[in-house]
Specification:
The chain is of the alpha/beta class. It contains 17 helices and 15 strands. Strand 4, helix 2 and strand 5 form a beta-alpha-beta unit.
């Protein structure tokens, strides 16, 4: 143990010349697995820990606890990157404050950064992209012509379904020990501010509702698919505080989109059609608008044409529907896969006029119900192939066996040759992306910042 500038550092071994910097990862021990694989491959790791559970679970060669104010994070991180000769950065979620800071620094200092997310296509995949995800995904920079040229990927192994039980216990560990460590670690860098006691009861309610609504969910799903095919629209909600929704939702919330869509549907949709709101299974215990929406449906005269479900198989439902409306959920990829018209209110991975219908306000929703724009299936397939070829890796972040698969795949991509032009001049931002084939297992040297560049970064 030693102290650096008031920050406690735990060192297991002396860092090697080429280091990988770990920031925040998924809840649970996934980054511990990644650090072990990196060590086996001869790379040293530095983990900047922002919460107690991260610190306890980390197996990095060097663990650093950040305990300063939010405004100090940029200069602190630049010191770590340059002082430890960091060659790669790995994190989960590109919309968190600390990760937005890290991405900007990575661009300025010329350090490749790999950003993880839950798989765009689930189950069985995790997302691993250079310099950002979702609205910042490099896939968004690809032209329609490039998408159409994407080759269909070869079949490859994929992970299994995430088990809610596994995620529940990992989340419980995370939030309990995060609360215990709140006096030492800065709360303002938590990407989700949830009270421990209320979370416990809300997840109990999640389980209760899963069991209590099982029969109703199955019955509604069966009737929609067998008796109402091509006569219902589906509106998948998202986890209420998901950073993709908060940062890129264009001020739409679950309640706002649901109420606006319901009123618009009552006015403008065909009278023999149905609107289905699907609550996210991880948000089932937190969802408190069921009665509010049912009452609104009754007062709008569509009580018999409006349903709320909080479980079920979204793939078959989407395939049988005549349209999907979403803020920016990855569920939109299912609509593209099945050739279903898609309305998008926020900034999404797939936001492009050639694939979906942009929703800016209530008038756009009014027009959406009668919109007849067909999906270009060749382009939608090319988009999916691009995700599989460049963004997705097999496994998941939580169950033991699939964690090992994902950890090895992430490390292979992390230390491989970086796609051309990933790092561009800071003043110009990210330039056009060009993808290279093959992941060589070689961690190439990146450019080093000059003292003048470092001074600019510290002033930024």
């Amino acid at each position: 143990m030693k102290r650096l500038g008031g920050r406690i550092i735990e060192q297991h071994i002396t860092p090697r010349p080429r280091a990988v910097l770990l920031l925040q990862g998924p809840v649970g021990p996934f980054f511990r697995d990644v650090a072990k694989v990196l060590r086996q491959d001869g790379h040293s790791t530095v983990h900047v820990c922002l919460t107690l559970p991260e610190y306890l679970l980390s197996s990095a060669d060097e663990k650093i606890r950040f305990g300063l104010e939010k405004e100090s994070f940029s200069s602190f991180l630049s010191e770590i990157i340059l002082g430890r000769r960091v060659e790669r950065i790995l994190l989960m979620g590109s919309e968190r404050f600390q990760h937005r800071v890290a991405i900007e620094l990575a661009k300025k200092l010329g350090v490749p950064l790999l950003s993880l997310e839950e798989g765009y296509i689930r189950p069985g995949y995790v997302t691993a992209e250079w310099m950002g995800n979702n609205r910042s995904s490099p896939i968004r920079a690809m032209t329609d012509h490039q998408l159409l040229a994407e080759a269909k990927p070869k079949a490859r192994p994929r992970g299994s379904q995430n088990r809610l039980t596994t995620l529940f216990w990992l989340s419980t560990f995370h939030y309990v020990f995060r609360a215990i460590g709140a006096g030492v670690f800065k709360r303002h860098l938590y990407h989700r501010e949830r009270a421990l006691v209320s979370e416990f009861f809300l997840w109990q309610r999640n389980w209760f509702r899963k069991l209590a609504h099982r029969g109703m969910n199955a019955r509604v799903e069966r009737q929609l698919i067998t008796k109402c095919a091509n006569r219902f629209y589906i509106l998948p909600l998202q986890v209420y505080d998901d950073m993709q929704l908060v940062a890129a939702g264009r001020q739409w919330s679950n309640r706002h989109i649901a109420e606006t869509a319901l009123k618009s549907f009552a006015r403008c949709a065909p009278k023999d059609h149905i609107l289905v709101v699907k609550v996210h299974p991880f948000d089932r215990g937190h969802f408190s608008d069921r009665n509010r929406l049912l009452q609104l449906a009754a007062s709008s005269g569509i009580a018999d044409r409006f349903f709320i479900i909080d479980d079920g198989h979204l793939g078959p439902l989407t395939k049988a529907s005549c349209g999907m409306l979403t803020i920016n959920s990855t569920s939109g990829l299912l609509a593209l896969q099945h050739g279903v018209k898609l309305g998008v209110a926020g900034e999404a991975l797939y936001s492009r006029n050639s694939l979906c219908i942009e929703i800016k306000d209530e008038r756009d929703i009014d027009r959406f119900w009668g919109h007849s724009k067909p999906v270009d299936q060749r382009l939608a397939d090319g988009f999916r192939f691009a995700l599989l070829n460049h963004s997705l890796l097999p496994g998941n972040f939580y169950s033991f066996a699939d964690r090992q698969v994902a950890a090895r795949a992430v490390v292979r991509r992390l230390v491989a040759e970086v796609p051309k032009n990933v790092i561009a001049d800071a003043r110009l931002g990210l330039s056009k992306w060009e993808f290279t084939s093959g992941e060589t297992g070689v961690l190439p040297t990146t450019g080093r910042a000059t003292s003048g560049q470092l001074a600019k970064v510290k002033d930024w």
